């Protein structure tokens, strides 16, 4: 048990795949990606959402390419994004007629950084292999990687039926769910082998095996990782809305990441009506950051509150500081290298407040119920000031901004050197 707790484990060694300027697998850090929910033919809406996802931290963005109008829009979307200074790799999500869309729209084939193929619906019966092969040949022609994305909602029924029959003939040593899991794994591996036989190099192939139940996802990816060195895309499909989707995705992918499995992740949250699509990017970043794999934004430690902290001041201040840091990160990453390592503490009373504040780079302990209306501020472990009066929150925000400038600005970097 202690050995498990002392990790995360070393990453499973996989073949690195270049998706535009982003490397997935190999020695690269786990990549965050997302997907638009706009009609791709609506260029304005799609450009706006891709740009928003990228600003939020999505390093790859997938878009639906489901018909001629969508395919025709892809190069225009790519060009519009470039003019905005947004050079995020775009992945085309193809189902049913992907082979035809790529053939009829060569500009789309060239503009995309990667193609996603679902072997369960790329074609049926005698057309399946031919249409799969056509997409792979297009990828080879344009030097594009491919994600072979199996999904249990559209699993190859011929393969599943064959494995079920074989299992029954052997006296049913496996349960139905175990057969289903094996069918998912085999579908990915068989398709990858076929792609390589056609001529697609291994460093152009990423595999995924999407299911919607936590235990199924863990079992499928553990097996897939044992039997392949392809880069792996993790994601719990149809994870759901709100906390359910966040918890389910984090539980499943957290266990896999802890075992060193996974090269890129997507959190598939169902947004609330009119909700912010970038929420899934934030959750993906927070998962990787809380597990210690990557650092995206400064950490804000805040106590949960109790009967000692009846004032909402510390809650509002913690939320304001956290929102301010996240909102400014796209600019601060360029202006203040290393700022994502910042640790801020906003505590609601004197029980743990001073201690937590000393552990942070900059922290404040606000007065709780019945305490003296003063708030000590600690910087780099030392008490730096005591704030009083109705402007405590505003004064602390200014101190955070000044600390960032002093430590991570040009002057602070030169002093450190």
Automatic annotation (TrEMBL):
It catalyses: (2E)-4-hydroxy-3-methylbut-2-enyl diphosphate + oxidized [flavodoxin] + H2O + 2 H(+) = 2-C-methyl-D-erythritol 2,4-cyclic diphosphate + reduced [flavodoxin]. The keyword Oxidoreductase applies. Its cofactor is [4Fe-4S] cluster. The keyword Oxidoreductase applies. NCBIfam families: ispG_gcpE (TIGR00612), PRK00366.1 (NF001540). HAMAP family: IspG. Belongs to the IspG family. Residues 17-285 form the IspG TIM-barrel domain. This is 4-hydroxy-3-methylbut-2-en-1-yl diphosphate synthase (flavodoxin). InterPro entries: Dihydropteroate_synth-like_sf, IspG_bac, IspG_bac-typ, IspG_C, IspG_TIM, NO2/SO3_Rdtase_4Fe4S_sf. It comes from Neoaquamicrobium sediminum. Pathway: Isoprenoid biosynthesis; isopentenyl diphosphate biosynthesis via DXP pathway; isopentenyl diphosphate from 1-deoxy-D-xylulose 5-phosphate: step 5/6. The gene is ispG. PANTHER family: 4-HYDROXY-3-METHYLBUT-2-EN-1-YL DIPHOSPHATE SYNTHASE (PTHR30454), 4-HYDROXY-3-METHYLBUT-2-EN-1-YL DIPHOSPHATE SYNTHASE (FERREDOXIN), CHLOROPLASTIC (PTHR30454:SF0). Its EC number is 1.17.7.3. GO terms for molecular function: 4-hydroxy-3-methylbut-2-en-1-yl diphosphate synthase activity (ferredoxin). It comes from the Bacteria. Converts 2C-methyl-D-erythritol 2,4-cyclodiphosphate (ME-2,4cPP) into 1-hydroxy-2-methyl-2-(E)-butenyl 4-diphosphate. Keywords: 4Fe-4S, Iron, Iron-sulfur, Isoprene biosynthesis, Metal-binding, Oxidoreductase. Transmembrane segments: none annotated. Binds 1 [4Fe-4S] cluster. [4Fe-4S] cluster binds at residues 303, 306, 349, 356. Residues 300-401 form the IspG C-terminal domain.
């Amino acid at each position: 048990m202690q050995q498990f707790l002392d990790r995360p484990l070393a990453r499973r060694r996989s073949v690195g795949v270049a998706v535009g300027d982003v490397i997935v697998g190999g020695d690269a850090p786990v990549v965050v990606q997302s997907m638009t929910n706009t009609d791709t033919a609506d260029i304005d809406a799609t450009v706006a959402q891709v740009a928003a996802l990228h600003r939020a931290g999505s390093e790859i963005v997938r878009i639906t390419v489901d018909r001629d109008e969508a395919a025709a829009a892809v190069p225009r979307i790519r060009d519009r994004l470039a003019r905005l200074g947004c050079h995020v790799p775009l992945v085309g999500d193809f189902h049913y007629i992907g082979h035809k869309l790529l053939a009829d729209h060569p500009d789309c084939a060239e503009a995309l950084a990667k193609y996603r193929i679902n072997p369960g619906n790329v074609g049926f019966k005698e057309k399946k292999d031919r249409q799969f092969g056509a997409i792979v040949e297009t990828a080879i022609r344009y030097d594009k990687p491919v994600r072979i994305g199996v999904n249990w909602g559209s699993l190859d029924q011929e393969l599943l039926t064959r494995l079920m029959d074989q299992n029954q003939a052997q006296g049913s040593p496996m349960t139905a769910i175990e057969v289903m899991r094996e069918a998912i794994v085999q579908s990915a591996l068989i398709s990858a082998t076929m792609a390589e036989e056609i001529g697609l190099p291994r460093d152009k192939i990423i595999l995924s095996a999407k299911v919607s139940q936590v235990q199924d996802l863990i079992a499928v990816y553990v097996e897939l990782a044992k039997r392949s060195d392809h880069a792996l895309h993790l994601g719990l499909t149809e994870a759901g809305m709100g906390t359910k989707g966040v918890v389910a995705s984090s539980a499943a992918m957290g266990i896999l990441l802890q075992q060193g499995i996974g090269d890129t992740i997507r959190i598939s949250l169902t947004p609330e009506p009119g909700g912010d699509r970038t929420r899934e990017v934030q959750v993906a970043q927070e998962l990787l950051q809380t597990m210690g794999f990557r650092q995206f934004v400064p950490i804000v430690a805040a106590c949960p509150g109790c009967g000692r902290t009846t004032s909402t001041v510390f809650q509002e201040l913690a939320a304001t500081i956290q929102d301010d840091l996240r909102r400014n990160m796209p600019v601060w990453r360029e202006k203040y290298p290393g700022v994502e390592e910042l640790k801020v503490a906003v505590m609601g009373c004197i029980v743990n407040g001073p201690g937590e504040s000393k552990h942070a780079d900059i922290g404040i302990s606000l007065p709780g119920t019945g305490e003296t209306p003063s708030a000590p501020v600690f910087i780099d472990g030392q008490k730096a000031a005591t704030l009083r009066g109705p402007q405590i929150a505003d004064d602390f925000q200014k101190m955070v901004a000044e600390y960032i400038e002093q430590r991570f600005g040009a002057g602070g970097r030169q002093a450190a050197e």
